[in-house]
Amino acid sequence: MLEIQLDDGGVGGYPGDDYCSGSVMSERVSGLANSIYREFERLIHCYDEEVVKELMPLVVTVLENLDSVLTDNQEHEVELELLREDNEQLLTQYEREKALRKQAEEKFIEFEDALEQEKKELQMHVEHLEFQTRQLELKTKNYADQISRLEERESEMKKEYNALHQRHTEFLQQKISLSQSLSRPTYAQESGHKFFPFVFLIPNWKERPNSLNVFPFTDGMVRGQIGAKIIPTLDHWHLSDLGQLQSNSSYKVL
User: Fold this and answer.
1) Rounded to the nearest 5 degrees, what angle is found at the Cα of 176, between the Cα atoms of 172 and 180?
2) Hey, which of 34, 131, 245, 249 would disulfide with 15, CB 3.0 to 4.6 Å?
3) C-beta of residue 15 within 8 angstroms of C-beta of residue 63
4) Residues forming beta bridges with residue 224, ordered by sequence position
5) 225, 231, 183: which is closest to 205 by C-alpha?
6) Separation in Å, CA 67 to CA 19, 72, 76, 246
7) Does the entry feature the keyword Transcription, yes or no (predicted)?
8) Helix or strand or coil: residue 224?
9) What burial class does residue 136 get, using C-beta atoms within 10 Å of its C-beta: 0-12 exposed, 13-18 middle, 19+ buried?
10) CA-to-CA dists, residue 11 to 8, 50, 53, 62, angstroms
């Protein structure tokens, strides 16, 4: 039986003798070794063992290298398969994260649009409130001016009322004095003095308050009116507007 001495010190035989007993060769290399063994046997039967004796170590080396390469290739294929699985997992994770990111971006865009719309609405509301505030401030200022004018008018009317009241009091006093003078004619006759039945001492009138306006009529009478002075016309006085003294008697100054 032909035996083959392997490089690692093991003895390898042909397939009938468990080829490569020192190492476990792959199935593909074993099949290839069987085919080579049959060819070697054919050559040995035809020629001699010496024909293939030098060729055997080379074939064994080639088979060992081929087996090593196949083993490395299988390991690389396993690693490649693992890397492929990892790549698929990473790709799946990437697609999932990409979809999640897209959803997040869409939600962010929606949120940004909603925030922008809310900002515009708030800005419009602020502008409306500012406009209302300006209107209220203007109304408040107008009301304050009106109140100030009304207070001034009230003060003027109080002064006017006091002046009218004072004037009314003076006329009442004059009426009382006139009534007292007219009620004592007998004393004047008994004393021998010449009596004038309608004597009225007109005081020296000074500037009258503007609240009383006196103006003459065509009948020679003087009417009282708010906001003017007392102006004597001829010898007649009339104050019908104030509900005070009314007289059309002739007064002579003593």
Assistant:
1) 170
2) 34
3) no
4) 214
5) 231
6) 13, 9, 14, 153
7) no
8) strand
9) exposed
10) 9, 19, 15, 15
| Residues 236 and 248: beta-carbon distance below 8 Å | yes
Block residue for tokens 């074939």: 59
Give the contacts of 38 (CB within 8 A, at least 6 positions apart): none
Reduced DSSP (H G I as helix, E B as strand, rest coil) percent helix, strand, coil of the chain, to 5:
65, 10, 25
Length of the chain counted residue by residue: 254
Q: pLDDT (tens digit, 0 to 9) for every residue of the chain, 254 residues total?
A: 444 443 443 334 443 334 343 345 678 788 888 888 888 888 888 887 877 788 888 888 888 888 888 888 889 999 999 999 999 999 999 999 999 999 999 999 999 999 999 999 999 999 999 999 999 999 999 999 999 999 999 999 999 999 999 999 999 999 999 998 888 655 445 555 444 444 444 444 444 444 444 444 444 444 444 444 444 444 444 444 444 444 444 333 33
Tokens of 234: 């001829």
For residue 88, give both structure tokens: 């698929």
Q: CA separation (Å) from 34 to 7, 51, 59, 71? A: 19, 19, 12, 19
Contact 59, 12 (CB under 8 A): no
pTM reported for the whole predicted model: 0.37
